[in-house]
Amino acid sequence: MTERKDRREFLKGLGIGAGVVALGGQSVAALRSLVPNVSYDAPTTVKIGAPGEFPDGMKFLPEQRLFVFREGKVFHAISAVCTHLGCTVRAEALPRAETKTVEGQPLKLTHRFLCPCHGSRYEGDGQNVAGPAPRPLDWYHLELALDDGQLVVDLAKPVDRDFRLTIA
Ligand code: FES
After folding, report:
1. How many angstroms is it from 121 CA to the middle of ligand 1?
2. Banded pLDDT at 14 (limits 50, 70, 90)
3. Over the chain, what is the mean pLDDT?
């Protein structure tokens, strides 16, 4: 008789425990829904230095995986992220600068890009010309920061290849 009662008490306790666990789970879910989904990703807009810190020609920024080109007062930036599987492409200086018409605008090409992973090749405007890369390298938007005049790149804002930032 006592054994039977103990068993009943045990099963009753088990039922209450399961209920508490279920309610606890719902409460956690309800509380979680009150917390906004905040993304803690790194900002995509980055200051990369004063225009005077960029020599005429090309400067590679390893942290941003970015090539910044300067021709006098005119700047543009090309991503170093290979469009195949994301390796960092290497720049190779051309023996002699060439001019190419890109999206209706002349562009002086001083380099071309090679991907060490699977051999993709890109022209100096980022156009893919060989290997498995499915599309050209991205160009990114540049502007001047209002507070200190540094160049600012927006790594989430690809632009057309006729984009240029001309500084006064
Ligand atoms: S990651 Fe560049 S060719 Fe594959």
Report:
1. 9
2. low
3. 86
